[in-house]
Design goal:
The protein has 181 residues and is mostly helical. The protein contains 6 helices and 4 strands; from the N terminus they run E-E-H-H-E-E-H-H-H-H.
Length: 181
Amino acid sequence: MKLKKCKICKQEFEPKNKFQLVCSYTCANKYAKLHLKKEAENKWKQEKKVLKEKVKTITQLRNEVRVVFQKYIRMRDANECCISCGASVSKIWDASHFYPATPFTGLIFDEQNVHKSCRYCNTYLHGNLIAYGLGLIKRYGIEYKLQLDNKALQGRYKKYTREELNEIKSIYINKLKTIKP
């Protein structure tokens, strides 16, 4: 058989079979301890990940979900122009809410309420809401806009639970996987 280097002491040795990684009993003992230590470290990393998820506040979790949701909206509307001004070119695209997220918490993750918008309209014109409303009617029709208005009246305030936020996050992660960039 061909000579191998021991995984522990780095000395060359002739292995008894192709699976032998170390040269002696002493090195085998050290290798086993090293392997057990790595397993314990990996187990701790997994436990730590679970613990970190448990101590996240609802606000932190909601912000994580917003990132995923808004990325989905930008990808969903990738071939659309700005809902407000009709611009087809922008350095940065946003996912703009027609009914603002803060006072209308029930519509934060409503796809009907959020569309791709240029940074200028969304940030500097605070959503450019009059043009946004006209853009919704132009793109989808008056019924769509009226339906959104009814949703805003009925579901203005919503307090999300940890479970709801985790479910919404997984839904949009899966939706992102189905969209081709």
